[in-house]
Amino acid sequence: MPEAGNPSSAAFPNASTMKILTVIGARPQLVKAAVVSHEIQARQQAGTAVQELIVHTGQHFDKNMSDVFFDEMSIPRPHRMLALGGLSHGAMTGRMIEQIESVLVEERPDWMLVYGDTNSTMAGALAAVKLHIPVAHVEAGLRSWNRAMPEEINRVVTDHVSSLLFAPTDSAVANLKAEGIAGQQVVRTGDVMFDASLFYASKAVNLPLPAGVGNRPFALVTIHRAENTDDPKRLQAIVEALERASRAIHMVFPVHPRTRGALGRLGLLDRLEAIATLLDPVGYLEMVQLEKACTLVVTDSGGVQKEAYFFGKPCVTLRTETEWTELVEIGANVLVAPDDAQSIAQAIADGVQRTVDTSAQLYGDGHAAAHIVDQLLSNLHGSACTNP
Ligand code: UDP
Fold this sequence. Notes:
Blueprint: E1 18-24, H1 27-45, E2 50-56, H2 63-73, E3 80-81, H3 89-107, E4 111-115, H4 119-130, E5 135-138, H5 150-161, E6 164-167, H6 170-178, E7 186-188, H7 192-203, E8 218-222, H8 226-229, H9 232-245, E9 250-254, H10 257-265, H11 269-275, E10 276-279, H12 284-293, E11 296-299, H13 302-310, E12 315-317, H14 325-329, E13 333-335, H15 341-351, H16 368-378
Parallel strand pairs: 1-2, 1-4, 2-3, 4-5, 5-6, 6-7, 8-9, 8-11, 9-10, 11-12, 12-13
Helix pairs in contact: 1-2, 1-7, 1-16, 3-4, 4-5, 7-12, 7-13, 9-15
Uridine-5'-diphosphate (UDP) binds near residues 281, 283, 301, 304 and 307.
């Protein structure tokens, strides 16, 4: 994979150049888009007439949640930076649609490329499809079957307006089929997050662990889902569980801004500080180092569940359902109700002893980004696609 880092600010060279407009906005999308942007740049350097235009919605905008990813992952700088973070779901999504629409009218790309399941994903997809610009969705077909999750709504809507659906797993393909989306527009590409973990783990190999982590065995903790942070009973149960589990293993916890706010309001930060190394959100390279060094992972993140598996670490997920069902089926991941402190503590203590078999290629061959760019290039205007 080539180095990529220069803002691709050059004007689009001529009308026959394929123009891909990518919308990103939240942390996990930066990780996913990084490898695809690198791949597009590699094709450009090899002489293919393709160019990517990146719009960042500003859903996550601060240094720890956005800037650091552009810097250390060599993601091309966005051509347009919107400032649409910190709003309610409706206001955020509505303003995103409006502002992305005006970029689309001006730029008239051949593809709208969106990632995952955030408000930025759905807004990009809706703005494009209404202008008859075909939408390609990376991480299509994921389902938690929990419509109370805002991410689930975003996934379902985006999949149903997309022309090209890049499904990371067999179960994602099956989910789409069950909803009547099948055939040539669904392509099982593997998972771009697997590509990213392979590429950036090799870049991070000599990086030290963040200050304060030390040499002792530790559980890596991340909690940020609104269902957990915005429910005081759940957040209290999670803190209680981590306190109990800290008798079995030390905790290292990069704290998402939303979680830090909620912990502070509930007076729970001091309790956590007494038993855990609390960090600000870390950059992706540091995160990869933590995932490689930890004994197990405790999370409610979608992406971190998979990264635990990529690095062979047992995972305890503080949710009652997951989109990444194959990890539960093979015993790599255990789901625990986030309001059940006793069961969480027990699952963490058990997890310390668990081993993970990573021999099945659940997430593809590590070249998902290349498969995605192949498909975009060979399917101008969302016309017929072929499965690889
Ligand atoms: N991540 C990171 N630093 C952190 C926490 C997470 O780089 O402090 C990365 C993580 O490795 C994964 C992505 O952010 O690649 C996951 O994002 P998040 O958990 O916010 O979203 P989700 O995957 O749940 O949508």
